[in-house]
Design a protein that fits this description.
By secondary structure, the protein is mostly helical. It has one domain. It contains four helices and no strands. Helix 1 runs antiparallel to helix 2, helix 1 packs across helix 3 and helix 2 crosses helix 3. The N and C termini lie close together (11 Å).
């Protein structure tokens, strides 16, 4: 699983999870170890999606550069499902 994310994506994911709390940080660590359940993937995706909605879009509702990074991260986390 760890090969699905780039180094920058891992940093972004761990940063988001760190800010969200210990439970989310544990999910990121489980993702790194490849032991994440489908429901836990959903929880990480929700965290990333919420960040996208709060900080990843411009007033025109187009993604900004941070939003584009978040979209790629979301895609990478979803690839590990199943």
């Amino acid at each position: 699983m760890s090969s699905l994310l780039t180094s920058a994506q891992w940093q972004l994911l761990f940063s988001l999870c760190f800010m969200a709390g210990a439970f989310q940080l544990a999910l990121a660590e489980k993702l790194l170890n490849g032991s994440l359940s489908s429901n836990e993937v959903d929880e990480l995706c929700e965290l990333i999606s919420n960040e996208f909605l709060m900080h990843g879009v411009e007033e025109s509702f187009e993604p900004n550069s941070y939003g584009l990074e978040l979209e790629l991260l979301l895609d990478a986390v979803n690839r590990g499902r199943g």
